[in-house]
Amino acid sequence: MSEEFKSLLQTYQRGLNEAKLDLIRSAFTDDAMVIGQAFPTTTGIEAILALYTDFFSKLDFNVQFNLLEQEVSGDLGYIRTHSNGTITPKGQKTADGESNREIFVLKRIQGTWKFHRYIFNVEVAEER
C-alpha cells in the first residue's frame, strides 16, 4: 500500500504546486470532502475543483508533503502527513514558510486509491 499512497500524495502535490486541476481531479473521489482551517467544508468534486480554481487564481504553492503514518482496512485507509513550504499571493515575494498537518481518508474505487476526505490545519508548536 505504501507505494500507492505515496504515488497518490505525489500526484496531489504536483497538482498543487503546478496549479493543475486535472491532477487535483484525479486525486479525489467524486463525493470527496475537504475540511480546511478557515475554509467552509467543501463537498463533491465540482465544488472542490471550484475551490482549487479560486486558490490557483490567487496563490502560488510550493509545498512538500511527508507521509508519517498509514493504515488500511479493506477498501478504506488513511494517511497522516506533515507539509511545509510556501503559499504566496500572486505577484508578491515568497513569504516565510508554513507547516500544516493533514489527515487524508482514502477509498479504493475500482482498484484505484483516491482521497475521500481531506482535513488540514496549521501546525501549532507544542509547549514543553
From TrEMBL:
Pfam families: SnoaL_2. Residues 11-113 form the SnoaL-like domain. InterPro entries: NTF2-like_dom_sf, SnoaL-like. It comes from Gloeobacter kilaueensis (strain ATCC BAA-2537 / CCAP 1431/1 / ULC 316 / JS1). This is SnoaL-like domain-containing protein.
